[in-house]
Amino acid sequence: MSDTPQECSTGDCVISDFSFEKSHMDGNARRGVMRTPRGDIQTPAFMPVGTAATVKAMYPEQVRQTGAEILLGNTYHLMLRPGAERIERLGGLHDFMDWELPILTDSGGFQVMSLANLRKLDENGVTFRSHIDGTAYELTPERSIQIQRMLDSNIIMQLDECIRLPAETAEIERAMQLSLRWAERSKTAFDNARGRALFGIVQGGDNNGLRAKSAVGLVDIGFHGYAVGGLAVGEPQDVMFSVLNEITPHLPTDKPRYLMGVGKPDDLLGAVERGIDMFDCVHPARAGRHGHAFTKYGVVNLKNARHKDDPRPLQLDSPNANSRRFSRAYLNHLTKNEEILGAMILSQVNLAYYQELMAGMRLAIEKGQFDNFAAKTREGWAKGDMPVL
User: I want to staple 159 with a disulfide (CB 3.0 to 4.6 A). Which of 5, 107, 210, 286 is the partner?
Assistant: First the structure.
């Protein structure tokens, strides 16, 4: 595939395919850009999660204002409600949710794990009953790709089997080998769809040898990008980082790398140090809905009674207006009373902080100062809260 595929008409050129360009390296940390027909994505990148065609408690334009350049949608939830066919008839997911920029959709593989009591799995795929009304569904690699194309996803994920950790080695290998066979079927079903990208997913649990085999097998099949799945499912952070250290040497240097479902700010910082380019996680928005705010001085629990008379904002020197605008006393009041506005403000604050963190990492990599940036960032978190002036 060309690095800059183009189609031109009436003198105008538009990017008509997917590409990834790596511009800077600092140690293993990578700075680059993914190009899609819906727009460019600067990497390292964090994708807010819009599970059911919405980032909870936020308008699409508010999500964009945080700096987000791509969202994640959930194949499983959207196929159940409102249905992929309905979304396709209504013009695709971008029109349906009024989000013009790129969208990545997961394949439904995570629900293979999380809904284990509602499903049966075999070589062909997964059959399960809806957690909503008990209706029976079948999800195969081919059907997953079909649904994601109906949704008009820009980055499509292969169907895989994600298992909980800890698990027996034989069970981890069985799921990894099945995921590799499903990866081949997913690529066949994808059929080189123009204007879209297909990512393979490295599995293998916490077994570094199996992870390496999975990565090599996926590279042999060939994908536009490579994701790391099956982490942040109960293992300690050092295990996750050990897996990343094992995987990245086996992945192409000219393809994006995506760590799925991760994570907290320190997870992102450590994963970028190990060569990861993309992330998604529900954590920042979910934490906001539960009264936790992310700042450069660490996490502030606004449910804590010590904030109820505090006139200070969350962070005086934050680039985000809402972090400077509202007092801690007011945010404590909203949170304690479960007011919707509290969830809206803190979701926006947290997603903006994540984008600020990613932008800081991108700039540090460009300048060759990533280690210094990481050390100062962790030092700020260790302070625990904004200093009293």
Answer: 107
What counts of helices (H) and strands (E) characterise the chain? 15, 18
CB 212 within 8 Å of CB 247: yes
Residue 89 CB partners (closer than 8 Å, separation 6+) = none
214 and 274 co-located in one domain = yes
Q: What's the number of domains the chain is made of? A: 2
Question: What confidence tens digit (pLDDT) does each residue in 321-350 have?
Answer: 999 999 999 999 999 999 999 999 999 999
CATH of the domain at 191: 3.20.20.105
Instruction: Give 377's contacts (C-beta < 8 A, 6+ positions apart).
Output: 265, 269, 296, 357, 360
| Nearest 10 degrees: Cα torsion 153, 320, 306, 385 | 100
Q: Do β-strands 292-295 and 298-301 pair in parallel, antiparallel, or remain unpaired?
A: antiparallel
Active site residues: 106, 280
Q: How far is CA 171 from CA 97, 165, 210, in A?
A: 39, 10, 11
Q: Yes or no: say if 191 and 149 are a contact pair by the CB < 8 Å rule.
A: no
pLDDT digits (tens, 9 = 90+) for 171-182: 999 999 999 999
Q: What is the pLDDT of residues 298-309, one digit of tens each?
A: 999 999 999 999
Q: Does a structural domain hold residue 2? A: no
Domain range for 363: 288-382
Is the pTM of the predicted complex or chain greater than 0.85? yes
Pairing of strands 29-36, 103-106: unpaired
